[in-house]
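agent> Task received from the user: take the single chain below, predict its 3D structure, and emit structure tokens. No templates, no multimer pairing.
agent> Plan: (1) validate residues, (2) run structure prediction, (3) serialize to tokens, (4) report one or two observations.
agent> Step 1 OK, no nonstandard residues flagged.
tool_call: predict_structure(input=
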Amino acid sequence: MKVLGLATYPVEAAATRFRMIQFIEPLAEQGIELSVYPFLDSRLHRSLYNRSQWPRTAAGLALASVRRLRELWRARKADVLFVQREAMMIGPPVMEWLVINLHHCPMVLDLDDATYVSYKSPTYGRLGSMLKWFSKTNDLIRWSRLVTCGNREIAAYVNSKGREAVVIPTVVDTTQFRPVAERHVTDVPVIGWIGTHSTFPYVKSIFPVLERLARDYRFRLRLVGTGEDNVTIPGVEIENLPWKLDREIADFQCLDIGIYPIVEDNWSVGKSCFKAVQYMAVGVPFVVSPVGACQDIAETNETHFVARTEDDWYTHLARLLSDEALRHRLGARGRNFAVQHYSIDAQAPKLAAALRAAKK
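)
tool_result: status=success, residues=360
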């Protein structure tokens, strides 16, 4: 069985890497040949959110749109079209419509975020939002045989549109994302967050808590992927690093405590709580906002703590900072939970079944 996979972003993007590319080998073992073709290449992806490079970005997007037409030729031999969010990040869903109608190829849509919720682009403003063509997600849902969803919130939306939804959480390879064999012991615990420029504002929402915490406890704050050159919090020692693919796992492994703050809005309630999976896989205890899928991720107070208020954030972080044994205990339980529920082995059969069901 041959599956043509169309992704918006290159391997550097978590959605492409963890919801498509890492399943190529497990699917092959089940007789499914998945070939993945991103819309953006790595170079264009790097410049995409740099407004000063908009002429180069605009030219790159136009060229990528033309190149995308090559997939029409590849689709001739495909049994199923597998689209991660959208085949092209700008404009209407032309490519999907052509593949479905010219080649009569059934489509499986994969949604790990609430892409049906419109928003104002933080980089390009209203122009970016117009080019995004938010209404396309509803068209893609309607055209799909079924939709694989990162969480129950998205699945409920898909069901409301009359389409079958299969919940497949975003997972990691737990043989790669694992606790370090020998952890470097330091007197100063590291609180950390790894993310993107679009979610860094969530972290800023608890800056007052971290400032307050630094008055009572010693810790170092490690931030990766903020998209900002200078990040300061009075009294807090901060490591502010750019995100790099070859350092991704090590960045998670070096943490003593993970933070996952989320400010609730229409977009965030559709998030799949993937950062929590990454923390658990490497054995790092964490504190998370109970928003969307994070409301019922793993086992509260056994693998992590939930913080609804600033006082909750302070209390849980203070407790973890002052109790190394507690950090180890929660981290070990989280690791076991990730292996059992959020591994490739646990989710690959679901994806294989969904792709086969679409072919029928």
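agent> Step 4: summary for the user.
Residues 2-171+343-359 form a domain with the Rossmann fold fold (CATH 3.40.50.2000).
agent> Done.
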